[in-house]
Amino acid sequence: MNVQERVYGKYGNNLTYKKELLDIVDDLGGQLLFFMHISRWDLPLKNRWLDYFEYRFKPDKKFYIIFEEEEFSTHTVLDLDTVVDFFKDRGVNKDKLIWVTASHNFNDVLKRFNKYIEIKSIPLHWGDSRGCRDRRFMKEVTVKSIVKDKVINYDVKSFGFNSSFYNLNYITDENFLSAIKTENSPSKLFCCPMGLKKISRVNLLQKLYDRKFIKDLDKIDDDDLGWVSLNSEKRIFKDDIYLYFKGYIEVGGIFDDTRFFEAMVAEEQAQAFYAMRDSIKDSFIYLSVESEMDDFSIWEDNSEGNLFHWMEKNCSRFTEKILIPILFKKPFLNLGPLHGLKILKSYGFKTFDSIIDESYDTEVDLDKRMDMVLDELERLSKIDLVELTENLKPTLDYNYNLLLDMNKNRKKYLEQYFTENILEKFIYG
User: Fold this and answer.
1) pTM of the full predicted structure?
2) For residue range 213-272, what is the model confidence (pLDDT) as tens digits?
3) Angle made by CA atoms 170, 160, 289, in degrees to the nearest 5
4) Where are the domains of the chain?
5) Largest CB tally within 10 Å, which of 29, 39, 81, 315?
Protein backbone atom coordinates (compact mmCIF):
# COMPACT_ATOMS: atom_id res chain seq x y z
CA MET A 1 0.00 0.00 0.00
CA ASN A 2 1.47 3.36 -1.04
CA VAL A 3 1.56 6.48 1.13
CA GLN A 4 -1.46 8.08 -0.52
CA GLU A 5 -3.54 4.96 -0.08
CA ARG A 6 -2.61 4.79 3.59
CA VAL A 7 -3.61 8.44 4.12
CA TYR A 8 -6.69 8.73 1.97
CA GLY A 9 -7.97 5.25 2.67
CA LYS A 10 -8.72 6.37 6.22
CA TYR A 11 -11.54 8.67 5.23
CA GLY A 12 -14.78 7.08 6.37
CA ASN A 13 -13.11 4.53 8.62
CA ASN A 14 -15.23 5.66 11.56
CA LEU A 15 -18.21 4.14 9.75
CA THR A 16 -18.74 0.43 10.26
CA TYR A 17 -20.54 0.35 6.92
CA LYS A 18 -18.01 2.26 4.78
CA LYS A 19 -17.61 -0.45 2.14
CA GLU A 20 -21.35 -1.09 1.84
CA LEU A 21 -22.01 2.61 1.34
CA LEU A 22 -19.32 3.02 -1.30
CA ASP A 23 -20.60 -0.06 -3.15
CA ILE A 24 -24.23 1.11 -3.03
CA VAL A 25 -23.40 4.52 -4.53
CA ASP A 26 -21.15 2.92 -7.12
CA ASP A 27 -23.93 0.51 -8.15
CA LEU A 28 -26.24 3.50 -8.62
CA GLY A 29 -23.72 4.99 -11.06
CA GLY A 30 -22.21 7.64 -8.81
CA GLN A 31 -19.16 8.25 -6.65
CA LEU A 32 -19.11 9.02 -2.94
CA LEU A 33 -16.39 11.29 -1.58
CA PHE A 34 -16.04 11.76 2.17
CA PHE A 35 -15.93 15.37 3.27
CA MET A 36 -14.57 17.12 6.35
CA HIS A 37 -13.08 14.34 8.44
CA ILE A 38 -13.60 15.66 11.95
CA SER A 39 -10.13 14.63 13.15
CA ARG A 40 -8.55 16.83 10.49
CA TRP A 41 -10.12 20.16 11.45
CA ASP A 42 -6.73 21.47 12.44
CA LEU A 43 -5.27 20.96 8.97
CA PRO A 44 -5.19 23.54 6.19
CA LEU A 45 -7.89 23.31 3.55
CA LYS A 46 -5.63 21.61 1.01
CA ASN A 47 -4.69 18.80 3.36
CA ARG A 48 -8.13 18.53 4.85
CA TRP A 49 -10.02 17.32 1.80
CA LEU A 50 -8.78 18.79 -1.50
CA ASP A 51 -5.89 16.36 -1.86
CA TYR A 52 -8.21 13.48 -1.00
CA PHE A 53 -10.76 14.57 -3.61
CA GLU A 54 -7.99 14.91 -6.21
CA TYR A 55 -6.72 11.41 -5.45
CA ARG A 56 -10.16 9.74 -5.49
CA PHE A 57 -11.99 11.66 -8.22
CA LYS A 58 -13.36 9.55 -11.09
CA PRO A 59 -14.63 11.28 -14.25
CA ASP A 60 -17.91 10.63 -16.09
CA LYS A 61 -20.07 9.56 -13.15
CA LYS A 62 -23.85 10.12 -13.17
CA PHE A 63 -23.58 12.03 -9.90
CA TYR A 64 -21.14 12.75 -7.07
CA ILE A 65 -22.05 12.55 -3.41
CA ILE A 66 -20.32 14.93 -1.04
CA PHE A 67 -20.70 12.90 2.13
CA GLU A 68 -20.31 14.72 5.41
CA GLU A 69 -18.45 12.11 7.35
CA GLU A 70 -19.46 12.94 10.89
CA GLU A 71 -21.16 15.80 12.69
CA PHE A 72 -22.52 18.75 10.76
CA SER A 73 -19.59 21.07 10.33
CA THR A 74 -19.45 24.76 9.67
CA HIS A 75 -16.97 23.87 6.94
CA THR A 76 -19.76 22.20 5.01
CA VAL A 77 -21.03 25.74 4.49
CA LEU A 78 -17.73 27.64 4.42
CA ASP A 79 -16.08 25.29 1.91
CA LEU A 80 -19.13 24.71 -0.27
CA ASP A 81 -18.10 27.16 -2.99
CA THR A 82 -14.65 25.59 -3.07
CA VAL A 83 -16.15 22.13 -3.54
CA VAL A 84 -18.28 23.41 -6.43
CA ASP A 85 -15.20 25.02 -8.02
CA PHE A 86 -13.24 21.76 -7.65
CA PHE A 87 -15.78 19.91 -9.78
CA LYS A 88 -16.28 22.81 -12.18
CA ASP A 89 -12.55 22.75 -12.95
CA ARG A 90 -13.01 19.09 -13.95
CA GLY A 91 -15.99 19.69 -16.20
CA VAL A 92 -18.62 18.60 -13.68
CA ASN A 93 -21.67 20.85 -13.33
CA LYS A 94 -22.98 21.51 -9.82
CA ASP A 95 -26.27 19.83 -10.82
CA LYS A 96 -24.44 16.50 -10.60
CA LEU A 97 -23.40 17.16 -6.98
CA ILE A 98 -25.47 15.81 -4.08
CA TRP A 99 -24.69 16.85 -0.51
CA VAL A 100 -25.43 14.21 2.10
CA THR A 101 -25.13 15.92 5.46
CA ALA A 102 -26.20 15.46 9.06
CA SER A 103 -28.50 18.43 8.51
CA HIS A 104 -31.95 17.56 7.17
CA ASN A 105 -32.50 21.21 6.19
CA PHE A 106 -29.22 21.98 4.43
CA ASN A 107 -30.73 24.21 1.74
CA ASP A 108 -32.59 26.18 4.37
CA VAL A 109 -29.35 26.64 6.31
CA LEU A 110 -27.64 27.94 3.16
CA LYS A 111 -30.43 30.42 2.49
CA ARG A 112 -30.40 31.66 6.06
CA PHE A 113 -26.61 31.88 6.06
CA ASN A 114 -26.59 33.78 2.78
CA LYS A 115 -29.16 36.28 4.00
CA TYR A 116 -27.57 36.66 7.41
CA ILE A 117 -24.06 37.54 6.24
CA GLU A 118 -25.51 40.23 4.00
CA ILE A 119 -26.68 41.93 7.18
CA LYS A 120 -24.01 41.06 9.69
CA SER A 121 -20.62 39.40 9.86
CA ILE A 122 -20.49 36.28 11.99
CA PRO A 123 -17.39 35.83 14.15
CA LEU A 124 -15.57 32.55 13.83
CA HIS A 125 -14.38 30.32 16.62
CA TRP A 126 -11.42 27.94 16.60
CA GLY A 127 -13.30 25.11 14.92
CA ASP A 128 -14.33 27.35 12.04
CA SER A 129 -10.82 28.42 11.09
CA ARG A 130 -9.55 27.50 7.66
CA GLY A 131 -6.70 25.80 9.40
CA CYS A 132 -5.18 26.33 12.79
CA ARG A 133 -1.74 26.35 11.28
CA ASP A 134 -2.28 29.76 9.70
CA ARG A 135 -3.38 30.98 13.15
CA ARG A 136 -5.98 33.30 11.70
CA PHE A 137 -8.39 32.08 14.28
CA MET A 138 -6.35 34.05 16.80
CA LYS A 139 -7.44 37.29 15.16
CA GLU A 140 -10.78 39.02 14.66
CA VAL A 141 -11.76 36.85 11.73
CA THR A 142 -15.35 36.85 10.51
CA VAL A 143 -17.28 34.83 8.01
CA LYS A 144 -17.48 37.93 5.83
CA SER A 145 -13.72 38.04 5.51
CA ILE A 146 -13.64 34.33 4.65
CA VAL A 147 -16.28 34.25 1.92
CA LYS A 148 -15.49 37.82 0.82
CA ASP A 149 -17.70 38.83 -2.09
CA LYS A 150 -18.59 35.29 -3.06
CA VAL A 151 -21.88 34.51 -1.40
CA ILE A 152 -23.49 31.09 -1.40
CA ASN A 153 -26.56 31.94 -3.44
CA TYR A 154 -27.63 28.77 -5.17
CA ASP A 155 -29.78 25.83 -4.19
CA VAL A 156 -28.00 22.53 -3.93
CA LYS A 157 -29.20 18.97 -4.13
CA SER A 158 -29.07 17.54 -0.64
CA PHE A 159 -30.66 15.14 1.79
CA GLY A 160 -30.15 14.48 5.47
CA PHE A 161 -28.56 11.35 6.83
CA ASN A 162 -27.96 10.23 10.41
CA SER A 163 -24.92 7.98 10.44
CA SER A 164 -25.57 6.97 14.07
CA PHE A 165 -28.64 4.95 13.12
CA TYR A 166 -26.54 2.44 11.21
CA ASN A 167 -23.32 2.45 13.22
CA LEU A 168 -24.27 0.41 16.29
CA ASN A 169 -22.29 -2.80 16.27
CA TYR A 170 -22.60 -3.09 20.04
CA ILE A 171 -26.35 -3.76 19.91
CA THR A 172 -25.62 -7.31 18.81
CA ASP A 173 -24.14 -7.90 22.29
CA GLU A 174 -26.76 -9.78 24.29
CA ASN A 175 -25.16 -8.75 27.60
CA PHE A 176 -25.55 -5.11 26.68
CA LEU A 177 -29.16 -5.51 25.58
CA SER A 178 -29.95 -7.40 28.75
CA ALA A 179 -28.31 -4.73 30.94
CA ILE A 180 -30.50 -1.94 29.55
CA LYS A 181 -33.81 -3.82 29.78
CA THR A 182 -36.34 -2.34 32.21
CA GLU A 183 -37.57 -5.11 34.51
CA ASN A 184 -39.03 -3.22 37.48
CA SER A 185 -41.67 -0.50 37.55
CA PRO A 186 -39.92 2.90 37.35
CA SER A 187 -40.06 5.34 40.24
CA LYS A 188 -39.71 8.52 38.14
CA LEU A 189 -41.97 10.10 35.57
CA PHE A 190 -39.17 10.89 33.12
CA CYS A 191 -35.45 10.97 32.42
CA CYS A 192 -33.68 13.91 30.79
CA PRO A 193 -29.87 13.76 30.41
CA MET A 194 -28.61 17.03 28.94
CA GLY A 195 -24.82 16.90 29.08
CA LEU A 196 -22.96 20.12 28.31
CA LYS A 197 -24.37 23.45 29.41
CA LYS A 198 -25.96 25.46 26.60
CA ILE A 199 -28.28 28.43 26.85
CA SER A 200 -31.24 26.43 25.56
CA ARG A 201 -30.62 23.66 28.09
CA VAL A 202 -30.25 26.08 30.98
CA ASN A 203 -33.56 27.63 29.93
CA LEU A 204 -35.18 24.19 29.91
CA LEU A 205 -33.79 23.43 33.36
CA GLN A 206 -35.30 26.68 34.64
CA LYS A 207 -38.67 25.74 33.18
CA LEU A 208 -38.49 22.30 34.81
CA TYR A 209 -37.81 24.04 38.12
CA ASP A 210 -40.51 26.69 37.71
CA ARG A 211 -43.09 24.03 36.93
CA LYS A 212 -41.97 21.92 39.92
CA PHE A 213 -40.67 18.93 37.99
CA ILE A 214 -37.43 19.35 39.95
CA LYS A 215 -36.82 20.76 43.44
CA ASP A 216 -33.47 22.46 42.93
CA LEU A 217 -31.58 23.96 40.01
CA ASP A 218 -28.12 22.90 41.14
CA LYS A 219 -28.50 19.41 42.56
CA ILE A 220 -30.57 16.26 42.19
CA ASP A 221 -33.24 15.84 44.85
CA ASP A 222 -34.86 12.53 45.80
CA ASP A 223 -38.27 14.13 45.33
CA ASP A 224 -37.61 15.23 41.73
CA LEU A 225 -40.27 13.92 39.35
CA GLY A 226 -37.57 13.08 36.85
CA TRP A 227 -33.91 12.17 36.53
CA VAL A 228 -32.43 15.37 35.10
CA SER A 229 -28.73 15.93 34.50
CA LEU A 230 -26.75 18.96 33.39
CA ASN A 231 -23.09 19.75 33.51
CA SER A 232 -22.54 20.59 37.15
CA GLU A 233 -20.90 18.75 40.02
CA LYS A 234 -24.19 17.94 41.77
CA ARG A 235 -26.71 17.67 38.92
CA ILE A 236 -25.25 14.58 37.31
CA PHE A 237 -26.19 10.92 37.47
CA LYS A 238 -23.96 8.94 39.81
CA ASP A 239 -22.61 6.69 37.07
CA ASP A 240 -22.71 9.21 34.22
CA ILE A 241 -18.97 9.06 33.70
CA TYR A 242 -19.04 9.43 29.94
CA LEU A 243 -20.41 12.94 29.94
CA TYR A 244 -18.37 14.51 32.70
CA PHE A 245 -15.13 12.77 33.52
CA LYS A 246 -12.00 11.97 31.60
CA GLY A 247 -10.20 8.73 32.22
CA TYR A 248 -11.37 5.18 32.42
CA ILE A 249 -14.91 3.90 32.28
CA GLU A 250 -15.47 1.91 35.44
CA VAL A 251 -19.08 0.87 35.25
CA GLY A 252 -18.51 -2.87 35.26
CA GLY A 253 -19.67 -5.46 32.79
CA ILE A 254 -18.70 -5.25 29.15
CA PHE A 255 -16.89 -1.91 29.37
CA ASP A 256 -14.29 -2.67 32.02
CA ASP A 257 -11.06 -0.76 31.49
CA THR A 258 -12.18 0.97 28.33
CA ARG A 259 -10.62 4.37 27.76
CA PHE A 260 -13.50 6.15 26.17
CA PHE A 261 -11.57 9.01 24.62
CA GLU A 262 -9.67 6.49 22.55
CA ALA A 263 -12.77 4.53 21.54
CA MET A 264 -14.67 4.73 18.30
CA VAL A 265 -17.90 6.70 18.22
CA ALA A 266 -20.08 3.61 18.38
CA GLU A 267 -18.29 2.41 21.51
CA GLU A 268 -18.56 5.85 23.10
CA GLN A 269 -22.30 5.81 22.55
CA ALA A 270 -22.61 2.39 24.12
CA GLN A 271 -20.63 3.54 27.13
CA ALA A 272 -22.89 6.58 27.56
CA PHE A 273 -26.00 4.43 27.40
CA TYR A 274 -24.52 1.89 29.74
CA ALA A 275 -23.34 4.46 32.28
CA MET A 276 -26.80 6.07 32.45
CA ARG A 277 -28.75 2.81 32.30
CA ASP A 278 -30.09 2.79 35.87
CA SER A 279 -31.52 6.31 35.64
CA ILE A 280 -33.05 5.69 32.21
CA LYS A 281 -34.58 2.36 33.27
CA ASP A 282 -36.04 4.00 36.38
CA SER A 283 -38.24 6.30 34.30
CA PHE A 284 -41.42 5.89 32.25
CA ILE A 285 -40.78 8.59 29.66
CA TYR A 286 -37.61 9.86 28.00
CA LEU A 287 -37.28 13.58 27.35
CA SER A 288 -34.72 13.73 24.56
CA VAL A 289 -32.72 16.96 24.34
CA GLU A 290 -30.65 17.09 21.19
CA SER A 291 -27.36 18.86 20.53
CA GLU A 292 -29.29 21.36 18.43
CA MET A 293 -32.66 22.72 19.43
CA ASP A 294 -33.77 24.85 16.51
CA ASP A 295 -35.41 28.19 17.10
CA PHE A 296 -36.27 29.54 13.68
CA SER A 297 -38.24 32.42 15.13
CA ILE A 298 -35.03 34.17 16.20
CA TRP A 299 -32.58 33.12 13.53
CA GLU A 300 -31.61 36.72 12.90
CA ASP A 301 -30.23 36.94 16.43
CA ASN A 302 -26.69 35.75 17.01
CA SER A 303 -26.43 36.61 20.67
CA GLU A 304 -24.29 33.58 21.48
CA GLY A 305 -21.58 35.02 19.33
CA ASN A 306 -20.08 32.82 16.60
CA LEU A 307 -20.82 30.72 13.58
CA PHE A 308 -20.83 27.46 15.52
CA HIS A 309 -23.67 28.70 17.72
CA TRP A 310 -25.48 30.18 14.74
CA MET A 311 -25.37 26.73 13.13
CA GLU A 312 -26.73 25.15 16.29
CA LYS A 313 -29.78 27.38 16.05
CA ASN A 314 -30.38 26.69 12.38
CA CYS A 315 -29.41 23.06 11.76
CA SER A 316 -31.99 20.27 11.89
CA ARG A 317 -30.08 17.14 12.78
CA PHE A 318 -30.24 14.16 15.08
CA THR A 319 -27.35 12.66 16.98
CA GLU A 320 -27.15 9.33 18.82
CA LYS A 321 -29.33 10.79 21.63
CA ILE A 322 -32.64 9.83 20.04
CA LEU A 323 -31.47 6.22 19.92
CA ILE A 324 -31.48 5.98 23.73
CA PRO A 325 -35.27 5.78 24.26
CA ILE A 326 -35.60 3.46 21.26
CA LEU A 327 -33.06 1.00 22.66
CA PHE A 328 -34.48 1.29 26.18
CA LYS A 329 -38.05 0.91 24.86
CA LYS A 330 -39.26 4.20 26.33
CA PRO A 331 -41.88 6.52 24.87
CA PHE A 332 -40.26 9.86 24.18
CA LEU A 333 -40.81 13.57 23.79
CA ASN A 334 -38.25 15.22 21.54
CA LEU A 335 -36.68 18.65 21.97
CA GLY A 336 -34.45 18.76 18.97
CA PRO A 337 -34.73 19.63 15.33
CA LEU A 338 -37.81 21.31 13.97
CA HIS A 339 -39.96 18.61 12.33
CA GLY A 340 -37.78 16.06 14.11
CA LEU A 341 -40.57 13.51 14.43
CA LYS A 342 -41.20 13.77 10.69
CA ILE A 343 -37.49 13.11 10.14
CA LEU A 344 -37.64 10.02 12.36
CA LYS A 345 -40.61 8.71 10.40
CA SER A 346 -38.60 9.05 7.17
CA TYR A 347 -36.27 6.37 8.56
CA GLY A 348 -39.24 4.11 9.28
CA PHE A 349 -39.71 4.79 13.01
CA LYS A 350 -43.08 5.35 14.66
CA THR A 351 -43.89 8.07 17.19
CA PHE A 352 -46.58 8.34 19.86
CA ASP A 353 -49.27 10.57 18.40
CA SER A 354 -51.92 8.15 19.70
CA ILE A 355 -51.32 9.33 23.27
CA ILE A 356 -49.14 12.46 22.92
CA ASP A 357 -50.03 15.77 21.31
CA GLU A 358 -47.08 16.03 18.94
CA SER A 359 -47.98 19.43 17.50
CA TYR A 360 -44.92 20.77 19.34
CA ASP A 361 -42.84 19.28 16.52
CA THR A 362 -43.91 22.05 14.14
CA GLU A 363 -43.60 25.00 16.55
CA VAL A 364 -40.84 27.36 15.35
CA ASP A 365 -40.55 29.28 18.62
CA LEU A 366 -38.31 27.20 20.89
CA ASP A 367 -39.65 28.74 24.09
CA LYS A 368 -43.21 27.84 23.10
CA ARG A 369 -42.08 24.37 21.96
CA MET A 370 -40.53 23.72 25.38
CA ASP A 371 -43.75 24.78 27.09
CA MET A 372 -45.81 22.52 24.83
CA VAL A 373 -43.56 19.55 25.62
CA LEU A 374 -43.75 20.22 29.35
CA ASP A 375 -47.53 20.58 29.10
CA GLU A 376 -47.62 17.05 27.70
CA LEU A 377 -45.25 15.80 30.37
CA GLU A 378 -47.49 17.30 33.05
CA ARG A 379 -50.58 15.72 31.51
CA LEU A 380 -48.88 12.32 31.31
CA SER A 381 -47.95 12.57 35.00
CA LYS A 382 -51.65 12.34 35.88
CA ILE A 383 -52.44 9.07 34.07
CA ASP A 384 -51.64 5.42 34.71
CA LEU A 385 -48.14 5.12 33.26
CA VAL A 386 -47.94 1.37 33.72
CA GLU A 387 -51.02 0.98 31.56
CA LEU A 388 -49.69 3.57 29.14
CA THR A 389 -46.43 1.68 28.66
CA GLU A 390 -48.31 -1.56 28.15
CA ASN A 391 -50.55 0.03 25.51
CA LEU A 392 -47.52 1.42 23.70
CA LYS A 393 -45.63 -1.88 23.76
CA PRO A 394 -46.32 -2.70 20.07
CA THR A 395 -44.82 0.66 18.99
CA LEU A 396 -41.90 0.39 21.40
CA ASP A 397 -41.11 -3.13 20.22
CA TYR A 398 -41.44 -2.09 16.58
CA ASN A 399 -38.93 0.76 16.91
CA TYR A 400 -36.53 -1.39 18.90
CA ASN A 401 -36.62 -4.24 16.39
CA LEU A 402 -36.30 -1.84 13.46
CA LEU A 403 -33.17 -0.26 14.93
CA LEU A 404 -31.61 -3.65 15.54
CA ASP A 405 -32.50 -4.83 12.06
CA MET A 406 -31.12 -1.62 10.50
CA ASN A 407 -27.74 -2.57 11.95
CA LYS A 408 -27.86 -6.33 11.43
CA ASN A 409 -28.97 -5.89 7.82
CA ARG A 410 -27.61 -2.42 7.22
CA LYS A 411 -26.84 -2.81 3.52
CA LYS A 412 -30.52 -3.49 2.83
CA TYR A 413 -31.63 -0.35 4.66
CA LEU A 414 -28.81 1.84 3.40
CA GLU A 415 -29.54 0.78 -0.17
CA GLN A 416 -33.23 1.56 0.31
CA TYR A 417 -32.58 4.99 1.88
CA PHE A 418 -30.00 6.11 -0.66
CA THR A 419 -31.93 4.74 -3.64
CA GLU A 420 -35.08 6.59 -2.60
CA ASN A 421 -33.29 9.85 -1.95
CA ILE A 422 -30.99 9.77 -5.01
CA LEU A 423 -32.91 8.06 -7.80
CA GLU A 424 -36.41 9.19 -6.94
CA LYS A 425 -35.56 12.77 -5.95
CA PHE A 426 -32.62 13.71 -8.15
CA ILE A 427 -32.22 11.29 -11.06
CA TYR A 428 -35.72 10.31 -12.14
CA GLY A 429 -37.70 12.86 -10.18
Assistant:
1) 0.82
2) 999 988 889 899 999 988 665 676 665 544 444 333 333 333 333 333 333 344 555 556
3) 65
4) 3-161, 168-408
5) 315
